[in-house]
Amino acid sequence: VQLVESGGGLVQPGGSLRLSCAASGFTFRWYVMNWFRQASGKERELVAAISGAGDSTNYADSVKGRFTISRDNTKNMLYLQMNSLKSEDTAVYYCHALGSWGQGTQVTVSS
Question: Which one of 48, 70, 96, 105 is separated from 29 by 20 to 30 angstroms, measured CA to CA?
Fold first, then answer.
C-alpha cells in the first residue's frame, strides 16, 4: 500500500484548499478511504471517510458543511475539498487506508 498526499499549503482564514492522495498497491475501489489530521500537540483525528463506491461519506462535526471528501476510482485518487478554512484547521493531513498512512501534507491557516 502506498499513499502520497499533496495540495497542502498556507491559506488565509476563509480560504480554500484541495488535498489529493494518490493510492497504489491495492484494489482502490474496494476500500474505505479516510482523511485524518493531527495538529501540533494533539492526537490524530478522523476528518472524513468515504466508502469504496463513493456513495457514502462521514465527517467530523468540526468540518461538516465545510469539507467534502471524494474519490475517483478510475484514477485511484482521493480528494478533500476544504472551504471556509479556520485557524483551528491547521494540521498535518494524512490519507489512510488498510492500516497504512501517507507521509502527510501540512495545512496552515493564518493571516
Answer: 105
